[in-house]
Design a protein that fits this description.
By secondary structure, the protein is mainly alpha-helical. 69% of the residues lie in helices and 8% in strands. A three-stranded antiparallel β-sheet has the order 1-3-2. Helix 2 (31-49) crosses helix 5 (100-121) and helix 3 packs across helix 4.
């Protein structure tokens, strides 16, 4: 049993796993749907923030294999969310640009996610939600600092 000053990391880990599972169940998404939606969101968001990025940069950012990134890009192109553009200086490089449809899809995914979070978090006091946001932001900042050192 941990002392009052030491967090119970086993309990934290277990609660994080259970929370993730329950949120997935609550949102009625299969694991595959959730992964596909999150990958689309991450890809479209990155392409929007980094216009004209090469596929290799997207691959690195998402930590995907080249073949997985190629499949993802192919799905995004077929859905008309992204366009491939030849590099003007090096024709071997293919760059990615988000389309208006892609921006609309990005907006829809984010709205859907936020709506689901609102529904879930409406069941707890707003002050607790704000505290969770504060803690998450502190973790993000700490991990970013560690990563940059």
């Amino acid at each position: 049993m941990p002392s009052n000053n030491i967090p119970d990391y086993d309990q934290l880990f277990a609660s994080m796993l259970q929370l993730n599972k329950l949120i997935a169940q609550h949102t009625h998404e299969t694991r595959e749907e959730k992964i596909a939606t999150m990958l689309q969101f991450a890809a479209l968001n990155y392409i929007k923030d980094q216009p004209n990025i090469p596929v290799s940069d997207l691959c690195s950012h998402l930590q995907l294999s080249k073949s997985s990134a190629t499949q993802l890009v192919e799905r995004l192109v077929k859905s008309e969310f992204v366009e491939r553009v030849d590099d003007k200086e090096d024709r071997r490089i293919i760059r990615l640009v988000i389309t208006k449809n892609g921006e609309a899809r990005l907006f829809d995914i984010k709205k859907n996610m936020v709506d689901k979070l609102k529904k879930i978090f409406s069941k707890i006091p707003a002050k607790d939600t704000r505290e969770l946001i504060r803690i998450q932001n502190e973790l993000i900042e700490t991990l970013r600092k560690e990563h940059n050192n």
